[in-house]
Amino acid sequence: MMDVPENPKRGASVAGRPFIDAVIEPGACFASPEALAEDPRLSREEKRLILISWAQYVLEALQDGGAEARFREAVLQQLAQLDPVAAEEYAAAFVEAARNAAPAEVAAH
Q: Which domain covers residue 64, as residue numbers?
């Protein structure tokens, strides 16, 4: 019978929370996208996964008429370091979402 090595990442935590929490709710685990990028505990792929989740959150906020421009740019900048293609795709989606949300904001005023 072959021994299965322990997974050193099993049960890993980020800011005292399980890793999956960082994927589901990055803002609860990291002060900023820059703080995430600088975290030495995470692999490049883990950071990429969390940033993509954060970009999706930003996209949803844009579709609801929110998301601060500076924050959007921070997410895109960090994501571009790890996955330029995904960053370009989200940048285009952010523009489209902002364009579609703008008429609703004008109509509400």
A: 15-108
pTM of the model: 0.77
In a domain, 28, yes or no: yes
Structural domain includes residue 80: yes
pLDDT one-digit tens code per residue, 12-52: 566 567 888 899 999 988 999 999 999 998 999 999 999 99
DSSP the chain: -PPPPP-TTTT-EETTEEHHHHHH-HHHH-SSHHHHHH-TTS-HHHHHHHHHHHHHHHHHHHHTT---HHHHHHHHHHHHHH-HHHHHHHHHHHHHHHHHHHHHHHHH-
Q: In this structure, is residue 10 part of a structural domain?
A: no
